[in-house]
Amino acid sequence: MAYEVPPLPYDYAALEPHIDEQTMRLHHDKHHQAYVDRANGALEGTDFADKPIEEVIANLDALPDNIRGVVRNHGGGHLNHSLFWESMSPEGGGEPTGALASAIGEGFGSFDAFKEQFEAAGVAQFGSGWAWLVLEDSVVKVTSSANQDNPVTSGQTPLVGNDVWEHAYYLKYNNRRPEYLKAWWNVVDWNKVAERYAAAQ
User: Fold this and answer.
1) Domain range holding 58?
2) Would you say 156 and 136 are in contact if contact means Cβ atoms under 8 Å apart?
3) CB of 75 within 8 A of CB of 53?
């Protein structure tokens, strides 16, 4: 079954003013579609074509050499963006509660300390990539990845990630990546992140 771009769970303009409508249209309809098209093309006719994208990206070493790079980049782009869209909401923002809040408090000392470390990871990611909150060995950690790499390849469970490719923010924020990273907290859907945390436990 070929991969498809999942529909946005909200309107293109729903995350205004933090993420602008034009960026959402280009990012979702054009960039994500291109990742899906290239991943489908690379996997077509292989034993991996019908496997969930999470499983494929977690087992890149099992792929034939001639398609591994394409699938890593474009399959990774599909996985990362699928997580990204559903991690945001026009009703987002605030702070997590419950078990996720406790885990962040234990892992980083406070929610503000976590945000500071996450933003720093996003700012420090050279070129294109992602900042992540992941679960590894029952502990929450902040990490970053280049291009469209995903933490599942390293045995980690991604809980939430922010896209720091320029296409994710440049129309509104230009070269002000730190400003974008701060604004993004206003749209994070902590309920969805908490669901992922509970499922990973």
Assistant:
1) 21-86
2) yes
3) yes
The three state secondary structure string of 85-132 is HHCECCCCCCCCCHHHHHHHHHHHCCHHHHHHHHHHHHHHCCCCEEEE
Residue 125 in domain: yes
Distance CA 91, CA 18 (A): 12
Count helices and strands (H / E) in the chain.
Answer: 10, 3
DSSP H or E stretch at residue 143: strand 139-146
Relative orientation angle of helices 177-184 and 111-124, to the nearest 10 degrees: 150
Each residue's pLDDT tens digit, 130-167: 999 999 999 999 999 999 999 999 999 999 999 999 99
Say how many domains are in the chain. Answer: 2
What is the reported pTM? 0.96
The b-or-e profile of 85-116 (16+ CB within 10 A means b, else e) is bbbbbbebeeebeeebeebbeebbeeeeebbe
Residue 75 burial (CB count, 10 A): 29
Helical (H) or strand (E) element with 73: none
Q: Decide which of 38, 60, 86 is a domain's last residue.
A: 86
From CA 103, how far away is CA 111, in angstroms rounded? 10
Q: Which backbone phi and psi does 9 adopt, to 5 degrees?
A: -80, 15
d(C-alpha 173, C-alpha 182), whole Å:
11
Residue 15 lies in a domain: no
Find the mean pLDDT for residues 90-107: 97
Token pair of 120 as six digits: 């720093």
